[in-house]
Write a structure and sequence with these properties.
By secondary structure, the protein is of the alpha+beta class. The chain is built from eight helices and 19 strands. β11 and β12 form a beta hairpin.
Length: 408
């Protein structure tokens, strides 16, 4: 009797707008809480199943797991595991593997195994590819198999804007039926390190465009809230997350027009402090790699800045300081070999280059670099109070330098 009830329920889901065979499943409670508007985000291990081009934002080995019961029906449970790791140094790439199962082991089961890679082509552009192995099991029916190819692209015109695009099932694979090709485009806005807004448009073959809207807000270093909306089928989503050390737990729910709420729980672990050793193969973490590169260049030209990559943005660390800013300063920062000469009078701090700024008593080339970074991020420096906000410029430094600085 239980089997009959389940088959009736699942048949309704398969042949209604509720669910299709091997649908574009949500991976992770974080994305679900954001209305699955994740194409231009995709900056954790679940990005493998949203947009593999986003994997390049990972700094370290990461593991993500998820469990949910679709519409709170025990027979329609979903389990998901993903793991991703930065690869060898010269490739500047991240590889990932995920496993997803939907349904029960005895009556109906869909299993998807995905392997993929994201690679940076330039500072602003990355690509990604995912290969999916689909396996379908239905009671009293032969098993069905198929392979699908996903291709993704991500473009970051600035550090506050990301654009993403992905095409899933490019090859129109067939399992027990031909799977729909799904195209997605998305934009993510990141005003600061605490908040993120995202918007996706999804178009499956033969269907109307579906819209997804999401937001994420870190209320503190350890607590985040999320909200989202989807229009096809209409669904409101919300969630929260708690971070402690290398662990993070995320919860989300999404509504449905006719079915019960679906509750999702994810656990993720970042292995940033755990060394990975595999004989014959060299793993690395990007931070160590970039410090290593900086040391190699030190004998040629002194490095003024170091660029590191994080989950959300590229970050610039001011050498000699511990302050992190989000910015692309490649065109703004200049390297110099010596200070050369002395100033004969005050200079305009908002118009001078790093060579002129470094001649100011008490400033030097490192603090001159900090001034350039602050100016780039915040605009002109207009007062004594504002210049004291520049990292490493203290009141004592200002006393030495103030006779040589004017603001206009």
């Amino acid at each position: 009797m239980k089997q009959i009830i389940f088959i009736l329920i699942f048949s309704m889901l398969l042949f209604s707008t509720l669910r299709a065979e091997f649908e574009d499943f949500p991976a992770g409670a974080r994305a679900i809480g954001m209305g699955n508007a994740f194409t231009a985000v995709s900056n954790d291990a679940t990005g493998l199943n949203f947009n593999p081009a986003g994997l390049i934002h990972l700094k370290n080995l990461q593991l993500v797991t998820m469990h949910e019961k679709l519409y709170n029906i025990s027979e329609l449970k979903r389990d998901y595991v993903a793991i991703a790791q930065p690869l060898i140094e010269k490739l500047d790439a991240v590889v990932g593997v995920s496993w997803h199962r939907f349904g029960t082991s005895s009556l109906y089961k869909e299993t998807t195994l995905t392997v993929g890679i994201g690679r940076r082509l330039s500072e602003r552009i990355s690509i990604g590819v995912g290969l999916n192995n689909y396996d379908q099991t239905i009671v009293n029916s032969p098993n069905a198999h198929g392979f699908g190819l996903d291709v993704g692209l991500m473009f970051m015109p600035t550090n506050k804007i990301r654009l993403g695009m992905v095409v899933k099932n490019v090859n129109n694979p067939e399992v027990s039926e031909e799977l729909k090709q799904i195209s997605k485009v998305g934009i993510a806005l990141i005003p600061n390190e605490k908040i993120l807004f995202s918007l996706d448009a999804t178009k499956a073959t033969g269907e109307d465009i579906a819209w997804h809207i999401g937001q994420e807000y870190w209320m503190s270093e350890n607590f985040v809230i999320r909200g989202g909306f989807e229009n096809d089928p209409m669904s409101f989503t919300a969630g929260l997350g708690v971070r402690a050390f290398n662990w993070q737990m995320d919860y989300a729910f999404h509504s449905h027009e006719v079915m019960n709420l679906t509750h999702s729980v994810s656990m993720s672990f970042d292995f940033s402090t755990i060394p990975i050793r595999i004989p014959g193969f060299k793993w690395y973490d990007k931070e160590s790699y970039r410090k290593k590169k900086s040391k190699k260049k030190k004998n040629k030209v002194e490095e003024i800045i170091e660029i590191e990559e994080s989950g959300n943005d590229e970050e610039v660390r001011i050498v000699g300081g511990d302050t992190f800013y989000t910015a692309d300063l490649k065109k703004e920062i200049h390297k110099i070999k010596d200070k050369g000469g002395k100033l004969t009078g005050p200079i305009n701090i908002n118009k001078s280059d790093i060579k002129e700024l470094s001649k100011i008593p008490g400033i030097g080339k490192r603090l001159a670099n900090n001034i350039l970074i602050y100016r780039y991020l915040n605009g002109d420096i207009k007062s004594e109070q504002e210049i004291l906000k520049v990292p490493k410029i203290t009141k004592n430094v200002w006393k030495k330098a103030k006779e040589y600085i004017r603001f206009e």
